[in-house]
Amino acid sequence: MRTLFRSTVFLVWAAVMVALVASTWSPRSTVTAVRPLPAEASEKWYGVYSQGRKVGYQRRVRTPSADGFTVENETLTQLAMLGSAQLVSTHLVAETDRSLRPRKFDFQLRSDGVDFAVSGVARGEELEITSSALGKRSLRLPASSTIALSQTLEDLLGQEHIESGRTFRYTMFDPVSSAPAPVTLTIGPLEDVSLPGGARSGYRVDEEFQGSQFRLWVDPNGAVLKEEGPLGLTLIRETDGRAATGGIDRDARVDLAASAAIPAGRAIDSPRTVRRLRLRVSDAPSTLSLSYPPRQRLEDGALVIEREDGMATLSLTLPVREPSLAEDLTATPFMQVDDPKVRALAAEIVGDDRDATRVAHKLLDWVFENLAKEATVSVPNAVQVLEMRKGDCNEHAVLFAALARAVGLPARMVAGTVYAPTSDGASGAFYYHAWNLIWLGDWVAVDPTFGQFPADATHVALVVGGPEKDIALVGVIGRLRFEVESFG
Q1: What is the DSSP letter of 320?
Q2: Cα 358 from Cα 427, distance rounded (Å)
Q3: Could you report the per-residue pLDDT of 241-263, keeping only the tens digit for each?
Q4: How far apart are alpha carbons 162 and 148 in whole angstroms?
Q5: Residue 210's pLDDT is what?
Q6: Is the pTM of this model over 0.85?
Q7: What angle do CA 441, 447, 451 make, to 5 degrees?
Q8: Cα–Cα distance between 434 and 447 in angstroms, integer?
Q9: Which pLDDT score is estimated for 167?
């Protein structure tokens, strides 16, 4: 089940908005409840652990109201991004009816001076979402399914008859991309679970969501006792608030970027100058596309990436007006192309120049030189990045894409991996990263974080599109394997 703990893992990456909202709304498959929820209030505390060291906690409260419930969920987790400490806190308050159908919710994320808030109100079959960074939008909800907060999924399971061998199927509804995704929960045998308050018996539950595997243990009432997520994070039921919030190791942090990195198995010399890379890829989900020709293509069972050196000399006159590229020029919730500040800055950087290649260089150089390189746990959008003037690869890529589109240069965001040496002098690894594609008669990869035009061939594309597409990486992180065959 997709608890807010699990969302914390994904919100540290570019998919934060997708993971956040997808974990907030999920149509439930039609299963008849066996027993109603108790009328009294319920409070549960959990400790968040990494390699046996406590790095945070989660608190969850369900309180009966006159005609429904109020659900409150808060987390605090000590994380790190490439060595940069990040104290991430989240807070959710939601109101539901007696069947746990949400009426409204408010969610807030805070991390290293970055605040992000999103709220939702259900009006019939419409969900009206308002975000501090992304404005307001309405989405049509499926009328045939019972809508439930993922934070109440534990309660929904508690209404069912849980026994070994049963399988529950749900549909997670992602309001950002409006794309449903199936979730499967398979109830396994009863097992002993070691907890701070003593051993308890719980049903093992295996969950699959978007190719990602989770394992949790629940008691016969559906209450979570323990949960193992990706990247070595574990959620464990604590006896009370004092036990959950106490004992946090102030020196312990989970460096999620490093934990998610894919070992290269072989050092790549001077990676920023690599023109051609050949990789063997294993354990890739069948839903993941690896072929993005002409730059990246499958060849004799291997993945070959070649830098577009010849394409970098091509150009065309802006603005581009080809109908087939209209989607790559329009505003999105993350790329506010029509915002006056974005348009004004783009015009200031470009001036009267209408040559696409020269314009791309100017925009790339400005983003590279004017954004402080700081690892950030945030929801990247162009306007916020422009105000903050700092961020990691996600912030660089989303601002560059918005500036490019504002002057009529088609641009896309790319999520994937890039090779970097490790500090211990070993063979290095591929770290999750974001960069851009621009249209110069064909697509050319550029990297505003590194100031590269074109980007070197160690950039391995996994998803092409805006941040709303990054939910596809849920089943990739911690699973994908690379073997470097050759480079040059």
Answers
A1: P
A2: 37
A3: 999 999 998 887 777 777 778 88
A4: 19
A5: 67
A6: no
A7: 115
A8: 8
A9: 87
Q: What angle do CA 262, 452, 379 make, to 5 degrees?
A: 60
Q: In which residue are the tokens 């994937």 written?
A: 416
Quick one: which of 418, 370, 371 has its CA closest to 392? 371
Structure tokens at 33: 């409840």
Break the chain into its structural domains and give their ranges. 4-258, 262-487
- Burial of 422 (C-beta count, 10 Å sphere; 0-12/13-18/19+): middle
pLDDT score for 3 = 38
* Helical residues (DSSP H) of 194-339, grouped into ranges: 241-245, 256-260
Q: Both tokens of residue 90?
A: 């989240």
Q: What pLDDT digit, counting tens, does each position of 152-161 carry? A: 667 777 777 8
Record the tokens describing residue 118, joined without a space: 């999103």
Residue 29 is classified by DSSP as P
DSSP 8-state secondary structure symbol assigned to residue 224: E
Whether omega before 271 lies within 30 degrees of 0, making that bond cis, reads no
- Say if CB 216 and CB 228 are below 8 A apart: yes
Alpha-carbon distance of 146 to 301, in angstroms, equals: 44
Instruction: Name the range with the highest mean pLDDT among 130-134, 195-199, 364-368, 473-477.
Output: 364-368
Which residue's entry shows tokens 């396994």? 188
Q: Residue 389: how many CA atoms within 13 Å on its side-chain side?
A: 4
CB 381 within 8 A of CB 431: no
Cβ contact 12:88 at 8 Å: yes
Burial of 451 (0-12, 13-18, 19+ CB in 10 A): middle
Work out the end-to-end distance of the chain between its first and last CA atoms, rounded to an integer number of angstroms: 45
Task: Note the pLDDT tens digit of each residue in 266-312.
Answer: 899 899 999 999 999 988 877 788 999 999 999 988 999 999 987 65
∠ CA 322-326-330, nearest 5°, is 145
**Lookup result for tokens 């046996």:** 52
Token representation of residue 311? 């394409």
Q: Which CATH class is domain 262-487?
A: alpha beta
For 82-140, strand residue ranges (E) read: 84-97, 102-111, 114-123, 126-131, 135-140
CA atoms within 13 A on the CB side of 271: 20
Measure the CA–CA gap between 395 and 323, rounded to whole angstroms. Answer: 28
Locate all alpha helices (DSSP H) within 293-334, ordered by sequence. none
Q: At which residue do the structure tokens 């061998």 appear?
A: 165
135: its two tokens: 């404005």
How large is the greatest C-alpha to C-alpha distance in the chain, in angstroms? 71
Give the residue among 435, 410, 475 at the shortest CA–CA distance from 207. 475
Write down how long the chain is: 488
How far is it, in rounded angstroms, from Cα 391 to Cα 418?
17
